[in-house]
Amino acid sequence: MTTPHVDDDYLAKRQLKKGSAGWILLAGLGVSYVISGDFAGWNFGIGEAGWGGFAIAMVLMAVMYFALVLSLAEMSAAIPAAGGGYSFARHAMGATGGYLTGLAVLIEYALAPAAIVIFIGAAVEELLGVNGPWVYALFYAVFVGIHLAGVGEALKVMMVISGLAVFAILATAVALVGDFDAANLFDIAPSAAAGASDVLPFGWYGVWAALPFAMWLFLAVEGVPLAAEESKDPTRDMPRGIIGAMIFLLFTAVLVVFLLAGASGAEMIGASGVPLVDALKATGQGTLATVINVLGLAGLIASFFSIIFGYSRLVFALSRAGYLPKALSLTSQRKAPVWALIVPGVFGFLVSLTGEGDLILGMAVVGATISYALMAGSHILLRLRKPDLERPYKTPGGMFTSGIALALSLVAMTGVYAFDPRAFNYTIVLFVIGAVYYFVYGKNHLVAKTAEEELALVLDAEHALDEEDETSPEVRAAQA
After folding, report:
1. 203-215 and 399-419 are packed helices; what angle lies between their axes, rounded to 10 degrees?
2. Taking the mean position of all CA atoms in its chain, how far away is CA 19?
3. Are 21 and 231 in contact (CB under 8 A)?
4. Residue 331 DSSP class
5. Three-class SS of residue 395?
6. What is the pLDDT of residues 150-204, one digit of tens each?
7. What whole-number distance in Å separates Cα of residue 241 and Cα of residue 239?
């Protein structure tokens, strides 16, 4: 099956390495997407809302992410394509809805590494005394290069780095549990804000402004379905992987939010650039603080590394479908999407030169919340419009669950405006530019007219390559 826009070997040149990841690796991918958020960034939400206000914001965002993850688990098992949210939205809302969802995710995934590499530079400066563009360039070059070596190798490296980061969080938690005092959670004096109290020192407005920081504890876990075409059994592995990752991230979020402020005080943690390290120092554990400072770099690298994986798979899928220039989806002999790794990496490096990590991160969060609303909406529309779609896994609560994710994602989007209107406005400008590109150029160069046709093309190409591999001289020799 082909279309006027592709020749017979178009998809043969655009194949990822199938069977590289089981559910444990996928869960590890989900954790590594997010783990840097446990080390820094989230705690500034305490400065916006106080510990009680931030705890409310965290619960709201945890509910949003868990509802979204359960919705994505169903869609990723039913539609196992590398585009993740883009693929789901195209099935539910057509070509335009698919692209706009993919665009929102792309804004998130292209900008987040740029913000993280700035934070990596600050950590390297703390340890080695060097920082700046050369540090950013080195990290982009090394970790894009590892991905170019192949997904199997990349995911194994990612698991090791993520393991170090998780060890740092668990070691910190064990060290601080003996110093926990609930009174420390509420050591911020109430302000003059409306509704202010000991529990909510900055009132309900503070809770609203803290929502983007609470998201940082879970941001990007939704990227697990981007590895669908590289999983061993997507109908089984995808739900297990993304739900397993979310449960583990809930556990680590509770550890850092309760124990850091409870051991050393909410006021101090709310202003700290390195909250794990400062909490350990405040409780007299300077040696462990030094070790955690080093391992904290592993947490930043884990998220930086895995989000590069995520943006490459999204760009690959959008390019293969014709939304973006088709050269971006060409894959190497190792089945790595070469230009989908390199081009967004160059873009991210250029963005990182601004040095405005907080602003870039806020923009990434806006892109994320737009995509969450569209993905949750896709789940609802697929249930209504395609009730007969084969669903190996079904979301508990069905459309009610995805409806919760949709409502809370819209609330979270407004929270970014409450904290930083610049981040909100700049992201909307980027989104509009991307939409104009689609309506002027992209929609006229699609490979397939419908999502079903595109998925059929991909599956046909996979089967053809599998049969070719089975009849290759190497396979026949091994069988003999």
Report:
1. 110
2. 22
3. yes
4. B
5. coil
6. 665 667 777 888 899 999 999 999 999 999 999 999 999 999 888 899 999 999 9
7. 6
Residue 340 CB burial class (10 angstroms; 0-12, 13-18, ≥19): buried
Q: How far apart are CA 302 and CA 162, in angstroms?
A: 5
**Residue 389 DSSP one-character state:** S
Three-state secondary-structure class, residue 188: coil
Residue located via tokens 């970790």: 143
- The Cα 108–Cα 475 span in angstroms is 42
Q: How far apart are CA 40 and CA 274, in angstroms?
A: 6
Q: Tell me how far apart the alpha carbons of residues 372 and 277 are, in angstroms, rounded to a whole number.
A: 33
Of 398, 22, 66, 32, nearest to 236 by C-alpha is 22
| pLDDT of amino acid 457 | 62
User: Which ranges of 2-129 would DSSP assign to H, the alpha helix?
Assistant: 23-34, 44-78, 85-128
Contacting residues for 97 by C-beta, under 8 A, at least 6 apart: 89, 90, 374, 378
Task: Please state, in angstroms and rounded to a whole number, the distance separating the CA atoms of residues 372 and 68.
Answer: 7
- Residue-wise pLDDT tens digits, 8-32: 566 666 665 565 567 888 888 899 9
With CA atoms as reference, report the closest residue to 51 among 189, 215, 169.
Answer: 189
Q: Could you tell me the pLDDT band of residue 476, with boundaries at 50, 70 and 90? A: very low
Q: How far is CA 41 from CA 25, 189, 217, 402, in A?
A: 26, 22, 9, 27
Is residue 17 within 8 Å of 252, Cβ to Cβ?
no
In the three-class reduction of DSSP (H, G, I as helix; E, B as strand; rest coil), residue 415 is classed as: helix
Q: At 379, list the tokens.
A: 């789940």
Neighbours of 9 (CB within 10 A): 11
For residue 215, CA distances in Å to 65, 120, 123, 361, 411 come to: 9, 20, 22, 11, 12
Q: Are 297 and 127 in contact (CB under 8 A)?
A: yes
Distances, alpha carbon 67 to alpha carbons 225, 242, 373, 407, in Å: 15, 12, 12, 11
Distance CA 92, CA 377 (A): 9
Backbone angles phi, psi at 331, to 5 degrees: -115, 155
Q: Check if the beta carbon of residue 352 is closer than 8 Å to that of residue 118.
A: yes
**What is the rounded distance in angstroms from the CA atom of residue 260 to the CA atom of residue 273?**
13
Identify the three-state secondary structure at position 132.
coil
Please list the residues that pair with 337 across neighbouring strands. 331
User: For residue 432, what are the contacts with CB-CB under 8 A and spacing of at least 6?
Assistant: none
Which amino acid is it at 2? T
Containing 402, the helix (H) or strand (E) segment is helix 399-419
